[in-house]
Amino acid sequence: MRALLLSLTLILAVGCQCSETDGEPGPNGERRTIAVIPKGTTHVFWRSVHAGALAAGRDRGVEILWQGPVREDDRSAQIRVVEDMISRGVDAIVLAPLDDTALVPVATEASREGIPVVIFDSGIEWDGRVSFVATDNYQGGVLAAERMNELLGGQGRVMVMRYQEGSDSTARREAGFLETMTERFTGIEVVSSNQYGGATTETAYATAENLLVSHPDVDGVFTPNESTTFGMLRALTDADRAGEVKHVGFDASESLVAALREGHLHGLVLQNPVRMGDLAVRAAVDRLDGRDVEARIDTGATMVTRENMDEPDVAALLTPDLSILDD
């Protein structure tokens, strides 16, 4: 009974699509399985990662088990997923850790069990990983700061609405933005940089509303991921200030792309999540095949504006092909 209750709890706590590819025998005749564990399962970013992982799985002949927490602040649920994949005896784990320290013990446990671990999207304080596949998040923050300086002409008041504590990827974006402002764009004053939007658009919206009340004369705002960007956009729209306040965000969704085209957003730093999922799975398979794997794989970052959003390469980042998820 206890085991049944634990299984039911895990199913409710996480999103799981656990048999996405047919899987083919590996070099020794075994059927290899790669567990891909994202931070969450609801945002468009993670669906794009999923598409890339499936494409790589099909190309390399492995089964992909896709499972992660529903909420991007549920560290316990993600830890349970990793533990479950270890118990299943998967051949490799591809993990986007929700926290740069909380996931270290289970990642270490996987490695001890002979399961190679590829870390993607967000870093971890652990040197046992096979590879780290991610955007150069600090440079993404630099791109956002450069865009903000361009928009404001080197003068004004800006604020950063952070994501959540313990998230390595967004912390690096925030650091890239803030340090670039301090070191290079001294005519711009940062009036707030210590408020966190949290893991959902609703919590981000509430924080954004409070920030706009506290700083009614702000000229620009930077938000470091999809949920904080959408939460701030909603708050600016409700305050009738969308478009007036220069807003540079991170990541894309249908709503954010529409806002960029309408001039309510003034820049989006885009990662390449499809490529990230693809390369992370390939790195895991390469290790299983005994090939050398680069310790750090940079998947790139692009500043997207209203002026370049229809260029073919940029448009592909804004609206990635996710049809493989429906197969």
Overview of the structural elements:
- This protein has 327 residues and is an alpha/beta fold.
- It has 2 domains: 2-135 and 272-299, Rossmann fold (3-Layer(aba) Sandwich); 137-270, Rossmann fold.
- Helices cover 44% and strands 19% of the residues.
- The protein has 11 helices and 13 strands.
- Helix 9 links the parallel strand 10 and strand 11 (267-270).
- The radius of gyration is 20 Å and the shape is elongated.
- The protein starts with a helix and ends in a 9-residue tail after the last helix.
- Mean pLDDT is 92; it is low at 1-13 and 18-24.
Essential attributes:
327 residues; alpha/beta; Rossmann fold; 2 domains; seven-stranded mixed β-sheet; six-stranded mixed β-sheet; disordered N terminus
Short summary:
The chain has 327 residues and is an alpha/beta fold. The protein contains eleven helices and 13 strands.
| Straight-line N-to-C gap | 36 Å
Structural class: alpha/beta
The arrangement of helices and strands along the chain is: HEEHEHEHEEHEHEHEHEHEHEEH
Helix content: 40-55%
Number of strands: 13
CATH topology of the largest domain: Rossmann fold
Radius of gyration from the CA trace? 20 Å
Assign an overall shape.
Answer: elongated
Low-confidence stretches: 1-13, 18-24
Mean pLDDT: 92
Classified in CATH, the superfamily of the largest domain is Response regulator
Number of domains: 2
Give me the side-by-side strand order of the main sheet.
1-3-2-4-5-6-12
Strand content: 15-25%
Q: Any idea of the CATH class of the largest domain?
A: Alpha Beta
**CATH architecture call of the largest domain:** 3-Layer(aba) Sandwich
Largest sheet: 7 strands, mixed
